[in-house]
Specification:
There is one protein chain. By secondary structure, this protein is an all-beta fold. It has strands spanning 4-6, 11-14, 19-20, 24-27, 30-33, 37-42, 47-52, 63-71, 75-83, 92-97, 118-127, 130-134, 140-143, 154-155, 162-164, 171-173. Helices cover 0% and strands 43% of the residues. The strands form 4 sheets. A 5-stranded mixed β-barrel has the order 8-9-10-12-11. Strands 1-6-7-3 form a 4-stranded mixed beta sheet, with no helix packed on it. Bound molecules: zinc ion.
Length: 186
């Protein structure tokens, strides 16, 4: 059987063909999907299951990856794309306040981040639909782009708090995550 997207209640096959697994239910000898997702067949035991695409809720304590879409003096808007540990894409609007950027005092958020940068942060507060992040400690940008030419910036041994553009040699200050350059697929 080929991998296929199914809706709730969609017919998958018969119990003569397959063993009904997780995300399915059987009725009158027929197997149906119990959730929205992708059909997978475990050939070793002929078990058919549906792998769900339900996006998990954001929770305090989760580590997330997101793209910076807006920077004001006191607040950065981050669209969270992925929760660490979940292989699912999402688009959730969150905020990173200037006081939560670093352990030391930060005057202006724009001094340490750029539009389009990808950050790794932790959810510290959810209140009235507002999700707040922190990049204190080892969090910060995991991928950043040159403000001059948009090339991907690289870590350098020269500085702890600056990245360098291999294209135009521009040096830019960032709150750099311990994971800079090591996070894939964000
Ligand atoms: Zn550049």
């Amino acid at each position: 059987m080929e991998k296929d997207k199914v809706l709730i209640g969609e017919y998958i096959g018969t119990i003569e063909e397959f063993v009904p697994g997780k995300g399915t239910f059987a009725e009158d000898g027929k197997i149906y999907s119990a959730i929205i997702g992708e059909v997978e067949l475990d050939k070793a035991n002929q078990t058919v299951r549906v792998k769900g695409k339900t996006i998990p809720e954001l929770e305090v304590g989760q580590v997330v990856f997101g793209e910076i879409v807006n920077i004001r003096r006191n607040n950065i808007t981050v669209i969270v794309k992925r929760i660490r540990g979940f292989d699912l894409e999402m688009d959730e609007k969150t905020s990173l306040y200037v006081s939560n950027i670093a352990d030391k005092y930060v005057e202006k958020a724009e001094d340490l981040f750029g539009i389009g940068d990808i950050i790794e942060g932790e959810i510290i507060r959810i209140h009235g639909g507002m999700v707040s992040l922190t990049t204190k400690g080892g969090y910060g940008v995991v991928l950043a782009f040159c403000k001059r030419c948009r090339h991907r910036l690289e870590k350098t041994d020269k500085y702890k708090d600056k990245l360098i553009c291999p294209n135009c040699a521009h040096e830019e200050k960032r709150k750099i995550a311990a994971d800079y350059g090591n996070v894939k697929d964000v």
